[in-house]
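Hi R.,

As promised, here are both runs. First protein below:
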Amino acid sequence: MKKLRRSARLVDMTQHLLARPHKLIPLTFFADQYGAAKSSISEDLSIIKELFELEGVGLLKTVAGAAGGVKYIPMMNATEARTVVEDLCEMLKSPGRLLPGGYLYMADLLGEPEALSKIGKVFASVFAEAEANYVMTVETKGIPLAYATAHYLNIPVVIVRRYSKVTDGSVVSINYVSGSSKRIQTMSLARRGLPEHSKVLIIDDFMKAGGTIRGMMDLLEEFKAEVVGVGIFMETANVKERLVDDYISLLRMTEVDVRDKEIRLELGNYFKKEI
């Protein structure tokens, strides 16, 4: 039991809540932790709740009853999310990011902790009510985004491999058609990696026609899992045939001019849906 002044108790409670997003914490836990009455803990939580909402940190939800408690839900409102994505958009428009073949270099951005944290919080806000049990992505560039999102949802990450490894044990493998190249490719997931009937949120860095996303959806059917959401950091525009209909994108690449080294980007469909 910690004997702390109220100011110190507020700091300690805040840290505890931030470190455990989406976890229901009984009021008795805090009461026993600090040797305080539940009424005092409730007053403290009211102060934290007001500050979280004022500063855009997230929400504190209180669940009544004997099995109730308080839960911190990280949230970023649409206005703040728009600002975050617009800043990222300006960074990605640099001509130096254009690679041969019209590809866009994003590896440095997807390895920058602050940017990743913001993107992860945007996705976690979008899918806060999806009740996902796992975040899924395919190796390799989508992995940082998946972990950033999973951090704010406080759920595990499942990584689909292009090639299975002996350390995966027994695996489920499927063939899928790449949406852009129309090539037959393979992806696999360890049988122990995902319990059957799980609710899965798919997160990926880039989508053209959506062949890889469709492949993950088909793979999840082998696990009798439910896809509760699909989040894409960047999609391409003007695709003749999209293999995925229901998804959220944060950015859209509308045009790449290789000769003049111009990259044209716009906000993704999430912001249009918000409008």
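And here is the second one, sequence first, then its structure tokens:
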Amino acid sequence: MTDRMAIDLPLMTPPLKRSVTIDGHRTSVSLEEAFWRGVADAAKSRGLTRAQLIGQIDHARPPEVGLATALRLFVIAELAPR
């Protein structure tokens, strides 16, 4: 039997769907709460609303990458040491 160290996991939630308006068009995005918090924190640190930051990410992402994926990758990149 292998001795495993206990791991502390963050609070895990199923994806939460929220509506956002990008360029005057409503869309909905499903993200886990931790990612929604990451987007909100990043927007606040930039002096933007969450919708404004999501719009910027939407415009910058390649068309083959979904918006939810782009948001998750953005939050991970924000947390990475520089």
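A quick note on the second one: The helical segments are 33-46, 50-60, 67-79. Let me know what you think.

Best,
J.
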